[in-house]
Amino acid sequence: MSRVHTLSRRQFSAGLAAAAAVGLPALAQAPLTKVRYQLDWRFEAGTIPHIVALRKGYFAAEGLDVSLTVGIGAAATVNRLTTGNFDMGTGDMSSLAEFAANNGQVPAKAVMVLYETTPAAVFSLKKSAIAKPADLKGKTLAAPITDGARRIFPLFASANGLGPNDVKWQTVDAALRESMLARGQVDAISGYIASGLMSLQRLGVKPEDIATMRFSDYGVPLYGNAVMATPTFLREQPNAVAGYLRALTRGYKDALMDRNGAVALLKAHEPLAVDAIELQRLRIILEDEIGTAAVRKNGIGQFDLDRYQHGIDALAKVLEFKSVPKAADLVDMKHLPAAPARMIFAA
Predict the structure, then answer these.
(1) Where in this chain does the record put each SsuA/THI5-like domain (predicted)?
(2) What confidence tens digit (pLDDT) does each residue in 172-211 have?
């Protein structure tokens, strides 16, 4: 069952008071615009900026009534945005291109890039002696079918001399992936850096026993996740899209300035979260995934259409797209916050 989280009336009122306290514009009696948001993953560090914006009243201050639904992978978000049940979501840029190419329709447009480079990786235990891509030949990897890293693995394989049948995939539930690796039931798994590393450590695997191959270090220069909005919502509620991005940017700034406070808000949202694990996961996401040199210089959110097109073209060859979509048709940058507001690392 999908997990959806909105605020109670008392929490909502508290959020408005908090927003007023930090100088955000007060809301009049105008009705709030509902935004049904599909997250890429569970309530953990990667979704903290959304939770911060929700619980601190930043969405409310923008006139938005936001519901956050947990996800099962960034690739799955793209499909879920076609159902009509969601207005916006965090999806994988490569999966967006693949869907458009093979279905002849644009299910959503990316409105704010979050990961300048894909956080996709292959994890193994060092005792398995998988130190380079060639060592994966003949091995069994596990991941959900909706895993963003698994979806683009063929490009990683092609860039490193692996054939399409050189590895065997075992489709597993996301909750079982890391435990299967820890127990030695599979040779390796695919996933995203922060989630994979910390989930393995939570299972008792020591950091020094984990071997990691990041796709971006092995010839895969793709974008990762982005905030997306459906064409209908973009057309009918452009102000809501812009407001969501402004509030989310504030959430990122707050998470950077007060990581302990951000994790405390996560804990209030998800009582099962482990503070120490989520603090480490948040550090990896903010410093290694979000905080690239380009983002530190130019701010979060901006797309390079030529670079995205290059990635689409590369994927089209190895995944045998039915057609090759244009990057410009999959991106809409009109609703990004102004450049100064997007400088989340300025402080």
Answers:
(1) 48-257
(2) 998 899 999 999 999 999 999 998 999 999 999 999 999 9
